[in-house]
């Protein structure tokens, strides 16, 4: 392909990806690499929205295991995604990529509130929009946020960037040497085989709205552009029958 196959995308970046090899916090080199990859795609006139997780700072489920009320723990996780979103915004604007952060929880001094029509207008003007604070509700993951926002802004695909694996496998490839990597799956197969690509709410939302998902590794520089240009890397999950 000599031109992008997608015009508007949602990039889902896990909090763990931002931690790099450290496993916790924000790794400056990793977040700069992600920003550079996003810039490559923006320069192709592709409209980019990003949903960032918060697992490098706080995970709601882990907090619940420590005895914290689930709703409270999830709200803490939403605040972690805001911190990551601001860090990514800064990294993008340092390389001259105009960016807006929109939060599902009002915090006017920090970022814009999430307004669908405003988000779409930013995208049309070539700005990267980062959706922070999840859906604004506890018990919903940032995977579900990515699916919901993709449906709302009519994105053509969700790109799920991973920092440890390069696609979807039949088992954990780090624990099972015989694990098979899939090139293509359907959402029903993901749900029925409990492959853990996304949580069931997010998978169902993508399936119901016919939003394809590409799971790939973000650690190799240029991979976001490769996916946008139609190169077959990682695993694609679709609504229809897998080939």
UniProtKB/TrEMBL annotation:
Pfam families named among the record's database cross-references: AA_kinase
Record pathway: Pyrimidine metabolism; CTP biosynthesis via de novo pathway; UDP from UMP (UMPK route): step 1/1
Binding site for ATP: 12-15, 55, 59, 163, 169, 172
Keyword entries, A-Z: Allosteric enzyme, ATP-binding, Cytoplasm, Kinase, Nucleotide-binding, Pyrimidine biosynthesis, Transferase
Catalytic class of the enzyme: transferase
Residues at which UMP binds: 54, 74, 135-142
GO biological process, one term: 'de novo' CTP biosynthetic process
Activity regulation description: Allosterically activated by GTP. Inhibited by UTP.
Residue intervals of the Aspartate/glutamate/uridylate kinase domain: 7-217
Subcellular location: Cytoplasm
EC number annotated for this UniProt entry: 2.7.4.22
Subunit note: Homohexamer.
Family: Belongs to the UMP kinase family.
Descriptive protein name: Uridylate kinase
Organism: Paenibacillus sambharensis
